[in-house]
Design a protein that fits this description.
215 residues, alpha/beta, Rossmann fold, 6-stranded parallel β-sheet, two-stranded parallel ribbon, 8 strands, 37% helix, 17% strand, globular
């Protein structure tokens, strides 16, 4: 019987659990998640379990948006076709989301994040953007925003293992493909680097043969 390597999701799930624990999220809050890759989709499930009353997802990939809705998103939006600020204004009655989790790791989404939350809300950055980002300090000051980030260590691993073991989150559906290690660059990184990729999590399988070749 073919086994799905769901244990590979322990680390990204622990990052999301850590972020929720250290965020300002309160029971009944409305949340916007920017980016529906593996981190964004795990974050969606975690904030739902933490008591968010509504969770909106911003994502350009049709397949990822569809997956977000299957995993519990209140609604999903394509920011390349819709004005996200207007959409958030409509669905929150002009208030805006209470907490925004930035999971897309692009300069554009990071710059835009501060314009999308309510006054006094929080922008929580869990993504790691390797490019420089121009910061707008005027909007956070005028809207009294809290901007926070997190970087998970091992302390949330037991919670992540427990969540997976008890099937409190769906990690299996996030695994798009399992490929040999020697195809990681060609079939893994290149697929995920495409702007409109439909892949979510690609796992590299290490066989005894590949271990010998790469040792």
């Amino acid at each position: 019987m073919k086994r799905t390597p769901i244990a590979t999701l322990i680390d990204p799930l622990s990052n999301c659990i850590h972020a929720v624990r250290y965020s300002a999220l309160q029971l009944g809050d409305r949340v916007l998640i920017v980016g529906a890759g593996s981190i964004g989709l795990l974050m969606l499930q975690c904030v739902r379990r933490a008591g968010a009353s509504a969770v909106y997802v911003s994502e350009v990939s049709d397949k990822r948006r569809s997956m977000a809705e299957k995993l519990g998103a209140t609604a999903s939006h394509d920011p390349s076709k819709e004005n996200l600020y207007v959409k958030m204004d409509e669905v929150t009655g002009g208030r805006g989301p209470d907490v925004l989790f930035e999971c897309a790791d692009t300069p554009h989404t990071l710059r835009e994040a501060v314009t999308l939350v309510r006054k006094g809300g929080q922008v929580f950055v869990i993504s790691i953007c390797e490019e420089p980002v121009e910061a707008d300090f005027m909007t956070p000051v005028l809207n009294e925003l809290d901007i926070k980030g997190s970087y998970c260590e091992y302390e949330e691993y037991p919670y992540a293992i427990d969540f997976i073991a008890k099937k409190l989150v769906d990690v299996k559906s996030l695994i798009s493909d399992v490929i040999p290690l020697d195809q990681l660059v060609e079939k893994g990184f290149e697929a995920l680097a495409k702007p409109l990729t439909e892949a979510v999590k690609i796992i590299a399988k290490i066989s005894w043969g590949s271990r010998r070749r790469f040792s």
